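Issue 218. Parser rejects a valid record. Input:
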Amino acid sequence: MTTAELTILLVSTAFAAFLKSGAGIGTGLFLLPALSLIFDPFKALAATAPLLLIMDIMAVGCHWKRWVGPPALTVMTGLSVIGVLCGSLAVPHLPTNVLKILIGLIGVIYALSNLLPFRGLQYLTSHLPASFAATAIPAYLSSFLGGLFNVVNAGSVFYAFSMVHLKLESRVFVATCCVLILISNFVRAVGFSLNGILPPELIITALKLSPIIAVFSWLGSRIVARCPPSLFRNLVFLLILVMCTKTLSAAF
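Output the parser choked on:
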């Protein structure tokens, strides 16, 4: 690995850890296109698995036992795991350009839906049929889709939708998202290891970066407390938009 590639790896990992503890969402959609600058799309996708898993463990520790209780969490977790398993089986068969397009499109739509005035998640929730919206089915379906798309680091889009639909208090919202993403990332990492996508050297690299992740996770939690939440989140969405637009353009 060249000095430039190592620098990109260190900086992107540090900033992703900062985002994880500061914003809670969008970390994977930033980290994947950033690592795609130095790795091919499949290796970049594999590299995010252990890195995000370490970040998730630290995030869950910060929000310990604040998540929603069973049976909702049990059902959502089960459906999420099924989604991850389905996605892990599909990923090895995707052409490189298709993977780039998928990552880019999801990221661009996600960023724009949060930057534009109608605010995507709230808009979708408010326009569900009343009889359907009154049930927990949309939240459960979103949990499955979260697991499915978490394989390409886009699970938080759907997990956040399920949290919005259940109308959870903000700390419970964040804690539950962290738990679901941690479990799905663990299953994803195991799946990637079993099908040969995640080699041992990438796991070792992630472990070596643990101190950097710990430091910048702590910094993120400190700095975000001093920054207006709306400003911080909009900056995150703008960054995701730029990175995913670049990934999308590279597919053509």
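Fixed in the parser; the record now loads. DSSP finds 13 helices and no strands in the chain.
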